[in-house]
Amino acid sequence: MKVILLGELRGKGGEGDIVEVAQGYAENYLFPSKIAQPATPGNIKQLEERRHVIAKREEKRIADATASKEQLDGKTVKIDAKVGENDQLFGSVTAAQIADAIKEQLGIEIDRKRIVRGGTIKTAGTHQVEINFYREIGAVITLRVADPDAEEEVVEAEETAEVEETAEAAETEESAE
């Protein structure tokens, strides 16, 4: 069944596209959700009259997506999580947690549904996360997952090592004199 999309439908097309879908999918989901309408001759004629308005909206969406991509691409976000043995997390890092961390640390609000990644994040360390803003426009951020308690211990160990090195250097200078 041919339908005219009234909005973006992931994997099928964008607003104003005429696509072929299963009849049950169209009648049970697309039409009631107002995502599409039947591709009748009258609706196609109305679509042709609205093409310039749709093109302007498309340009704005692409410009907004490109601006968002430039803001986020290559940035690093850190999430604290409880880590067990072998760097395994207790649970996993969700898309909602990533979206919250981006908003908190970078000040950019994104929808959690835009976050695409290869499976769930269940280990501590550095992970690459892709965020899809619009169609093929997306950004890749680096996500650091770490245990906040373990990190404090590492910082304390580094500070202790620095103090010890300074003390050893002072003792060496005194004995040299």
UniProtKB/TrEMBL annotation:
Domain Ribosomal protein L9: 13-40
Region of interest (Disordered), residue spans: 153-177
Keyword Amino-acid biosynthesis belongs to the record: no
Any one Pfam family match given in the protein's UniProt record, by short name: Ribosomal_L9_C
Alphabetical keyword list: Ribonucleoprotein, Ribosomal protein, RNA-binding, rRNA-binding
An annotated GO cellular component: ribosome
Source taxon at top rank: Bacteria
InterPro entries: Ribosomal_bL9 (IPR000244), Ribosomal_bL9/RNase_H1_N (IPR009027), Ribosomal_bL9_bac/chp (IPR020594), Ribosomal_bL9_C (IPR020069), Ribosomal_bL9_C_sf (IPR036791), Ribosomal_bL9_N (IPR020070), Ribosomal_bL9_N_sf (IPR036935)
Known function: Binds to the 23S rRNA.
Similarity remark: Belongs to the bacterial ribosomal protein bL9 family.
Annotated protein name in UniProt: Large ribosomal subunit protein bL9
Gene: rplI
